[in-house]
Design brief:
By secondary structure, the chain is of the alpha/beta class. 42% of the residues lie in helices and 13% in strands. The protein has helices spanning 19-25, 27-30, 41-44, 47-61, 74-88, 104-114, 133-139, 162-172, 232-235, 243-281, 308-317, 337-341, 346-349, 363-382, 385-396; strands at 7-8, 68-71, 95-99, 119-123, 144-148, 175-179, 198-202, 213-217, 285-287, 298-303, 320-321, 352-356. The strands form three sheets. Strands 2-8-7-6-5-3-4 form a seven-stranded mixed β-sheet, with helices on both faces. Helix 8 (162-172) links the parallel strand 5 (144-148) and strand 6 (175-179).
């Protein structure tokens, strides 16, 4: 089958860099290329675009510019938040609380810290992937120093009760970090209102380039450097500033802030149209994640009696880009840890499909995708002995 079109519905994995973002970045590659740490005017002028970028990012969160620290990605920001907080507050305690559905940047960092004497509680979630606040409260100990709960899940799109979690952490005097890589730029986030002490974000989820992100650290949070060397980022994150990418990140962040209300409304409507068509027109399918408390662009399904990998290959042949699980685990044959955590059995979790829209997705795109999906699912089920057995048993009842 020759591809006649390409519909990209894997925006949770990465997004297209917007032309306006590339345009904003270009001068800092070939014209204004100085190292901001040098003393001569040509280089020291480079401090100004970094300052402006920091202000733009801070404004999007209701934060102070000096609370924004640029990183290479969300994974670095997650590692920095957890490892540095654990080290800085170990005199107070050694207990950290997170959830079973976090990105592996958090889960694997938790495992790393466990090997170094810290105790980590991985909270269960409900069938929609939401944290139960009473379960969280019950998990808190006198030695708890950090709670890290993602803002929204990267696979099923469920948005957590972040404001309530922040209030619990503040009341108990515990640091609260949220991995907002999927949420930042897509839904409103205010760090003071939500009592967030640290927040991770990544540029390539909001139409900025890969290779840049940031960590928000509330003023007064006493955590040290994660990367040692020079005095950049107010001595907290060494390494020559990646000025073109920092400028690109700020440009994308500003664009997302300016259009957020309109984009949320339009993308949510398309998402719901997609969900309604799939659930109505394809049998033996379930929606994963909360029906309404979810990211505007996320739809995640499980199709019984088929393998997600086969589904992705056939969608690709039809010119459709989707995902089964997260991009960081796409090479794994194991079912998604997120789907298992919300209670799905292995055989159903294996048949997952994540479709994530953008502001460029059209209703025509969705119609084409659903029409192709109906045919592909039917074709795969015709080849499935499990489906054949199921239908035979159903007839015999």
């Amino acid at each position: 089958m020759e591809k006649t079109k390409m519909i990209y519905l894997d925006n949770a994995a990465t997004t297209r860099c917007k032309p306006e973002v590339v345009e904003a970045m270009l001068p800092y590659f070939t014209e204004q290329y100085g190292n901001a740490s040098a003393v001569y005017e040509f280089a020291s002028n480079m401090k100004e675009p970094i300052r402006k970028a920091r202000e733009t990012i801070a404004e999007s969160l209701g934060a102070k510019p000096e609370e924004i620290y640029f990183t290479s990605c969300g994974t670095e920001a997650d590692n920095w938040a957890l490892k540095a907080a654990a080290e800085a507050y170990q005199d107070k305690g050694n207990h950290i609380i997170t959830t079973k559905i976090e990105h592996h940047a958090i889960l694997h960092t938790g495992e790393y810290l466990e090997k170094r004497g810290f105790e980590v509680t991985y909270l269960d979630v409900d069938e929609f992937g939401r944290v139960d606040l009473d379960v969280l409260k019950a998990a808190i100990r006198p030695t708890t120093i950090l709670i890290s709960v993602m803002f929204a899940n990267n696979e099923i799109g469920t948005i957590e009760p972040v404001k309530e979690i922040g209030a619990i952490a503040k009341e108990r005097g515990i640091l609260f970090h949220t991995d907002a890589v999927q949420a930042y730029g897509h839904v409103p986030i205010q760090v003071d209102e939500m009592n967030i002490d640290m927040l991770s974000a990544s540029g390539h989820k909001i139409n900025a380039p890969k290779g840049v992100g940031f960590l928000y650290i509330r003023k007064g949070v006493k955590i040290g450097s994660f990367i040692h060397g020079g005095a950049q980022e107010r001595r907290r994150r060494a390494g020559t500033e990646n000025i073109p990418y920092i400028v690109g990140l700020a440009k994308a962040a500003g664009m997302h802030q300016d259009s957020m209300g309109k984009d949320m409304e339009e993308v949510t409507a398309l998402r719901d149209y997609l969900i309604d068509r799939v659930l109505t027109e394809i049998p033996y399918v379930r929606l994963n994640g909360h029906r309404t408390k979810r990211l505007p662009n996320n739809a995640n399904f499980c199709f019984q009696f088929i393998e997600g990998e086969s589904l992705l290959i056939m969608l690709d042949m039809a010119g459709i880009c989707g995902a089964s699980g997260s991009a960081c685990t796409s090479g794994s044959l194991d079912p998604s840890h997120v789907l298992l955590a919300i209670g799905l059995p292995h055989e159903i979790a294996h048949g997952s499909l994540r479709l994530t829209l953008s502001d460029e997705t059209t209703k025509e795109d969705i119609d084409y995708v659903v029409d192709q999906l109906k045919e592909i699912v039917a074709r795969l089920r015709d080849m499935s002995p499990l489906y054949e057995d199921f239908m035979r048993e159903k007839k015999e009842r």
